[in-house]
Amino acid sequence: MTALSVSTSSAASLRADALVIGVAKGPKGLVVAAGAEAVVEAFEGKLAEVLTTLGATGAEGEAVKLPAPAGLKAPLVLAVGLGEAVDGPFGAEDLRRAAGVAARTLAGAKKVALALPTGSAEDVEAVALGALLGSYAFGAYKADVTKAPVAELVVLTDRKGSKDAKSAVERATAIGEEMNRARDLVNTAPNDLNPKSFAAIAQAAGKEHGLKVEVLDEKALAKGGFGGILGVGVGSTNPPRLVKVAYTHPKAKASLAFVGKGITYDSGGISLKPAGHNETMKCDMAGAAAVFAAVVAAKRLGLQVNVTAWLALAENMPSGSATRPGDVLRMYGGKTVEVLNTDAEGRLVLADAIVRAGEEKPDVIVDVATLTGAMVLALGNRTFGVMANDDALRTRLHETAGAVGEPSWPMPLPADLRKGMVESTVADLANMGERMGGGLVAGLFLQEFVAEGIDWAHIDIAGPAFHEAGPFGYTPKGGTASAVRTLVRFAEDTAAGK
Ligand code: BES
Ligand code: MN
Ligand code: ZN
Fold first, then answer.
1. How many of the other CB atoms lie within 10 Å of CB of 148?
2. Euclidean distance between the first and final Cα of the chain, in Å?
3. Domain span at residue 150?
4. Which of 111, 273, 330, 477 is catalytic?
5. Is residue 97 classed as helix, strand or coil in its secondary structure?
6. Residue ID of nearest Cα to ligand 1 atom 17
7. The CATH number of the domain where 441 resides is what?
8. Is 46 a catalytic residue?
9. Which is deepest, 73, 84, 221, 460, by most CB within 10 Å?
10. What pTM did the predictor assign?
11. How many Å lie between the centroid of ligand 3 and the Cα of residue 269?
């Protein structure tokens, strides 16, 4: 695992395999960002000129290597682009992305020092988090590890309040490590990660971090009447689980429930997905991974709020025992659902978990799910959709996401779309409604299972949960840990009484 630390040493004197500096696009060409003064000096004032000769412009995503001159202890300098030059500090997301590019570019190096502009503890945290996320690699199944992630990252800062800087790096470590854990869970092949092994991982992490973990196995689920989770899992030889991970703070004034969709593989079931639509469906547990990472991070940060994560885990497979289109399930809490399409399985496991979470009367329920292809069509691959039964909560989550650098967009729950869904000829509800607005129909379905008086929001991460294109910034290919930072910041703000 990558080690992260902060140092107030000068960039010139720190021993490292590479020294990272920031450059930006100024009105008259490339400019070197603050933090790199010692490097500018070592290049005798010619650094911007040298970099320009090498083709550097300071654009976002750019990374240019050059040999260090005498006077620097590191043999290599890496200049990363911060984008347009700004008066005043760079945005936190610009810093995270630049640090991420640096860590990714320098994979294989042992020790890397980052001399990026850090005028505040928030900047230090952004650089640290970006670097930790950018150094992520999933090597579980690969023999070739010549490009191992950077082993040691040192964030340089001249900030006088180095105590603030130290706690900023500790925060980044907790959030970054838990995000990387969520990425590992998503990237793990579905023949290795199933409901049972996921539950075991949650139990082990709970033990490690002092969280209360309760697992309902298929017998307990049957006894409790969890017809949604059981109905989805019944076609698989890997039986389903409902996992509760609870973090409580003795002085907490509010309680949050985070519910995650945890389909460890979504084949579609009897309504089988065609080839071309199932290759990445190991990512269908990214919501459960996100809520799990968030509750562990809340604990590691010692937030003064109660957070319970509910992981609704099942494998959606076709078989002789699988739920058929036409079957009626009796959900936890008693509502009946006619399953018209077994590929609309996420809402079935979530419905049970939302009812169960509601029994504990949290102040807010937020569910996170790779729920619909329709949301990907609507918002693309990098933006998640936010729906809620309360406009203020929806706005708050959208703004929280923006504040931590996660693109999101508020989506409606239009009353007219509810009609198609409640019109099952045999049951209280059908698990499908109109095709148009499918992401919103799914949200409306979930809303039916939210207890009276509880504020609830639904985050559909089907687009951003799994990144199939080339890596950018601190985002690798594969699992991204989408929504984790939003949930953690939401919990922090709640703890702070916001
Ligand atoms: N897991 C999928 C949604 C999904 C699609 C996630 C693409 C990530 C990328 C979900 O279970 C699903 O199959 N939804 C169906 C619902 C439909 C049958 C009503 C969909 O979106 O097509
Ligand atoms: Mn599905
Ligand atoms: Zn699914």
1. 14
2. 34
3. 3-157
4. 273
5. helix
6. 344
7. 3.40.630.10
8. no
9. 460
10. 0.98
11. 10
